Amino acid sequence: YKFTIIAPPPTVSSYSNYDFYAGSQITLSGVGFASVTGVNLLGSSPGTATTSIISKNDSVLVLQFPTTTITRGILQFNYTSAGTATTLNAAQELVNLDNAYQIFTDGYQNSWENGSWSGQAGISTTIFKTGSASFMGVFPKSGWKIEGFQNWYPSLPYDASYKYLVFWVYGGAASQTVNIQTNTSSLGYGQNGSNPITVPPGVWTYFKIPISSISFWSTGGTLQQLGFFIKGPDSGDEKLYFDDVVLVK
Question: N or C: which end of the chain has fewer CB within 10 A?
Fold first, then answer.
């Protein structure tokens, strides 16, 4: 009897990043990558780009991303199965930082600056997700501080085409509930418990939050402040690191 071994389709179990920019690389872990012959980026609106395969084996695939007008997209794998060429689309959507509105990426962007309350916050070059720097927010025990960014001019006028608030956070010593604050929220910019997210300790966590799902940007408002607030913290002083803070259409 003759048997044909059919390799599993390319299946991603983890991504090293969900954001990319021209020339950046993302490492995929999973199975079935040895049979991959090419990987396209399919835009959420019409558009296709081709990534470069830097290296691959059956469990690890390293891709480099091109310059593209795509804002958000998924990966499409071209591969062979039992001698037949086929394609498979991944589920995870990736974000192009080059085409996002950047608030912080390795530094303050688009006239944003440090708008923190603690007086200790700032740029860190010791802990970062991409590039060479992140924004460090300092939350003293029982301090009730808002750490984050401000842009008094030219600010960002309301634009309904922005769909997501995207950022990475590296957690502190304990799990914390962090509340997202904006001056354009219906609750205003203050020490309120609106828009909570959970940030686990000691790891990078990715957030891609639909703007429509939180009290973030009232129609007609001009965005001038974006901050992160912890009620407390009660367990001790905390430092959280924020990277690639952007708005995405």
Answer: N
